[in-house]
Write a structure and sequence with these properties.
By secondary structure, the chain is α+β, with helices and mostly antiparallel strands. It is built from 1 helix and 5 strands; from the N terminus they run αβββββ. This is DUF3301 domain-containing protein.
Length: about 140
Amino acid sequence: MGDLATLLLLLVLLAIAGTWLVLSRARDRAIQEARRRCQQHGLQLLDETVGLSGLRLQRFHGQRVLERRYSFEVSIDGDDREAGHLWMIGNVLTALILPTIELYMPEQPAHTPDTPDTSEHSNVVPFRRQYRDRDIRH
């Protein structure tokens, strides 16, 4: 009976090691994908790593498969940290969320008497008037 228990323990250890290897390869693939997408969007992947943050069952090509969610942090200039997420099924990227970073601020329009002051010290947000044609009924 001792040989059977030893064999079962060995099989369990091999299954754990195999699962760890598969997840390690998947994580390496997720790091490559995050690095490539950050470079594509002009972002800096901080800490050069991703972390497994979730698992969920998802329907993919008519089958239920396990989808992995990886979280990571990005920056535009190295001074800020924003969260990013990507979802993968196998080696396929199924979703990507990167933070919206405003890269350019439009110039402020000149102040006229009929528009409120929108200088940087004001808390007034200008609204455009909407004109409706009252004769048209839908």
